[in-house]
Specification:
This protein is of the alpha/beta class. It has 15 helices and 19 strands. The protein folds into 3 domains: 274 residues, TIM Barrel; 52 residues, Alpha-Beta Complex (Oligo-1,6-glucosidase, domain 2); 57 residues, Sandwich (Immunoglobulin-like), CATH 2.60.40. The chain is 26% helix and 15% strand. It has an 8-stranded parallel β-sheet, with helices on one face. It has a 4-stranded antiparallel β-sheet with strand order 14-15-19-17, covered by helices on one side. A 3-stranded antiparallel β-sheet has the order 6-8-7, with no helix packed on it. Helix 6 packs parallel to helix 7, helix 8 runs parallel beside helix 10 and helix 12 packs parallel to helix 15. The radius of gyration is 23 Å and the shape is globular. The chain binds alpha-D-glucopyranose.
């Protein structure tokens, strides 16, 4: 019998380090804060943590602008703190993944400083994507993901590419020095004991060598000059060899946005990445048809590779799903009810699930952060017309009845303001409440661990009433009622429900797990 590697069906918890727990009261979460809460994560029942970037950074994009890939930013701690965190996480039975940001560096990275100091055409500039424009026009029509053009012009006439903020210049992966550097960075963290990497903007490393315009195509459309160019796969083959040369099932998951689900499979060839994110569930509205279609498309695309799919409902980049599933003007609590049901759906699927910090507390998106407190470059670059992602990055409420809610010591002024209403959402308030979201998450994760290990990697969809789904994997059935009227429960013994059953009826906006063994 072959042993299943840990990541194949792991539940991974995304820690947005800056907003998780602040040990020293400077307003930014830090590695010691994460370490102090490992017991909470173990008790929650997740298998692994993914830490968002904690590297030295001016934080122009929350740390996805790295100035030194081998250093911990002093705001987040030190390398000693990191080593202690790895050791403690492992002692708690938790794996630890880190984010790696290969598409771009910070504009404060020494390489970019050298590039700016060197003349056009110099080897220093070769590590980035510098081009001449046509007169006053940038070299291509490519947009920055954060708004505005993806090119910034220097006084000497060269333009440099930044698919994100101008403080995040894109690296030139055709330069062998870039490739060698990142292999070395991977080794640095592997040697420190990390179990895996989440690869930021994994599809972006190579751009069309002809620099063709995008025109009216989508950035992530098939054949886009910006993402998923064929050359990128060579990099991941090299990385796979590197990961495989270490013991202990080290893995990598790519952040690959693509309009074409089938494209994901290319990254999952057996000698490439272990996993890619599948974001279509996260993008799907609360709809039986959409949820089912996403699952079918994903499994169909991933199955031939032999890899397992991944699923995610929220992250540091999107509006929290309690809020997404809420109905403006609808019954209060409907977003939370649907989020509970969605969790049972997510955890019933084959493959691994990625949770985002705070979803286990049922945190809603914070919509009313004052403009002057917002930090996301999307907010500033859009001139305040796009809210950006700060609303899902507000620090976690742990305890107490007033800000900072145990996020840091009492005098802490959190880097984003925490709403007063969050006194109802603290981990402390939910801890002993049998009906809280936290209790429900713990129960669901414990139940998932108790499932037979050999459930099929595929799903069946027995007939279900209109507006509902029955998802079956061997003896496990997950029934989800997307509508608002009760439906009959399917046969089987209920293992867990997201709402109190109405006799043998499953209420609207709820889900149940049943077993036929
Ligand atoms: C990814 C990250 C996002 C970041 C961007 C640029 O999409 O998830 O937070 O802004 O890459 O690095």
């Amino acid at each position: 019998m072959t042993r299943t590697p840990w990541w194949r069906d792991a539940v991974v918890y995304e820690v947005y380090v800056r907003s998780f727990a602040d040990s020293d009261g400077d307003g930014d979460g830090d590695l010691r804060g994460v370490r102090s809460r490992l017991g909470y994560l173990r008790d929650l029942g997740v298998d692994a943590l993914w830490l968002t970037p904690f590297y030295r950074s001016p934080l122009a994009d929350g740390g996805y602008d790295v100035a030194d890939y081998r250093a911990v930013d002093p705001r987040f701690g030190s390398l000693d703190d990191f080593d202690a965190l790895v050791a403690d996480a492992h002692a708690h039975g938790l794996r630890l993944m880190v984010d790696i940001v290969p598409n771009h560096t910070s504009d404060r990275h020494p390489w970019f400083r050298e590039a700016l100091a060197a003349p056009p055409g110099s080897p220093e500039r070769e590590r980035y994507v510098f081009r001449r424009g046509a007169g006053d026009a940038p070299p291509t029509d490519w947009p920055s993901a954060f708004g505005g053009p993806a090119w910034t012009r220097l006084p000497d006439g060269d333009w440099y590419l930044h698919l994100y903020a101008p403080e995040q210049p894109d690296l030139n992966w055709r330069d062998p020095r870039v490739r060698a550097e990142f292999e070395d960075i991977l080794r640095f963290w592997l040697d420190r004991g990390v179990d895996g990497f989440r690869i930021d903007v994994a599809a972006g490393l190579f751009k069309d060598p002809e620099f063709a315009d995008l025109g009216d195509r989508g950035r992530h459309s098939p054949g886009s000059p910006i993402y998923s160019r064929p050359e990128v796969h060579g990099v991941y083959r090299d990385w796979r060899r590197l990961l495989d040369s270490y013991d202990g099932d080290r893995m990598a998951i790519g952040e690959v946005w693509s309009d074409d689900t089938a494209n994901l499979a290319r990254y999952l060839r057996p000698d490439e990445l272990h996993q890619v994110f599948q974001f279509h569930l996260q993008l799907a509205p609360w709809s039986a048809d959409r949820f089912r279609a996403v699952v079918d498309e994903t499994i169909e695309a991933v199955a031939p590779t032999g890899a397992a799919p991944t699923w995610v409902l929220s992250s540091h980049d999107v509006v929290r799903h309690v809020t997404r599933y809420g109905l403006p003007g609808g019954p209060p609590g409907i977003g939370a009810a649907r989020a509970r049901a969605a969790l049972l759906f997510l955890l019933a699927l084959p493959g691994s699930a990625y949770l985002y910090q705070g979803e286990e507390l049922g945190l809603p998106e914070v919509m009313d952060i004052p403009g002057e407190a917002r930090r996301d470059p999307i907010w500033t670059r859009s001139g305040g017309t796009a809210l950006g992602r700060d609303g899902c990055r507000v620090p976690l409420p742990w305890s107490g009845t007033a800000a900072p809610f145990g996020f840091g010591p009492p005098a802490t002024n959190p880097w984003l303001p925490m709403p007063d209403a969050w006194r109802h959402y603290t981990a402390e308030a939910q801890e002993t409440d049998p009906d809280s979201m936290l209790t429900f998450y713990r129960r669901a994760l414990a139940q998932r661990r108790a499932l037979p290990p050999d459930l099929p990697g595929t799903v069946e969809w027995p007939d279900a009433p209109q507006g509902s789904l029955l998802l079956r994997r061997g003896p496990l059935t997950c029934a989800v009622n997307f509508g608002d009227r009760p439906i009959p429960l399917p046969p089987g013994r209920p293992l867990l429900t997201s709402a109190t059953l109405d006799g043998t009826l499953l209420p609207g906006s709820s889900a149940a797990w049943l077993t036929t063994t």
